[in-house]
Amino acid sequence: MPGTLPTVRGGVQALTPVTRRVEFLTDVAIALNATEQRFKRRPPLTRFILPYTKVNATETAAFKTFFESRLGSFATTWSFTLGATTYDALTFEDDTFTAREDAATPTLYSFTLKARQTANPGQTAGAAGAAFPALACGARAMLPYVQTRRFATLLNDNPIGPRYTWAWFIGGSFPSQALRGWELSYPVLSDADLATRETHFRDNWGRWGGFSFTDDDDTTVYPNCRYDADSLEIIHTAPNQSSLTLRIMETH
Known about the structure:
Mean pLDDT: 95
Distance between the termini: 48 Å
Helix content: 10-25%
Low-confidence stretches: none
Number of strands: 15
Structural class: mainly beta
Order of helices and strands: EEEHEEEEEEEEHEEEE
Radius of gyration: 23 Å
Largest sheet: 13 strands, mixed
Number of domains: 2
Number of helices: 2
C-alpha cells in the first residue's frame, strides 16, 4: 500500500527531535590474538522514531487515517521525507496508534510513530579505508572525550585467595600492548559535519571497514581501527543541528 506520511504545521512530515538510525549488518569473528575476519551481510536500512507534540485535531485525524489505511504494520511500501532525502519501503513498527490529549492543551494531541525500511532502495557505500575525518574546526572530537585501553587475560581465581593468570597480549602474533578504544560524543553538529561522519560510517559499512584514527589528546595515529557498532543513531534536534555518538576500537 504505497502512500506518503501526512504533514503537520509548516508542511513538514516530522517534528524535531527526529531519531534516525542507519543500520548495517556484518559478522565479526575475533581470534585469541585479537585479529579479525569481518563479513558483509546486508546493505544499510534506516529506522525512525518520530515524535509529534501539540498537533491539532485535523492533522491528528490525518495521521490516524493514514495509519488505518496502512493496516498498522501491514503495509511496507509507504514513504517519508526528511530534509532533502525521501525514504521508501517503510513500514510501521507497531500495530497500535496512541494519541494523548492533556488537560493543559485540550484539542491538541501528542503521539509517537516508529518506522523502519524493509528494503534497501539501492543505496551503496563508497570505498572503505579513508582516515577518520576531522570536523570543520580541525578537531576530530568534542568533549566529553572518552578513551579506553583493553587487555585480554585468562583468569582463574582460587576461593582461598590466589589468582592464576595468563596474558594473551604478549607480543609475537599477539598484541604487545593494550588496544585502544574511543567513545566520541557530538552534542551539536552542523549538517556539514554530520555528513562527513555519516559518509565515513557508510563507506566503512559499519563494523566491516578498517581505517586510521588520530587521537586528539596526543596526535598519535592508530592505523588499525574500526567502528564498534553496525548502527549509527542520529538525533536531528533542529535545522542544521544534530547529535550522535560514535564508538571506535583498535584492532590487531
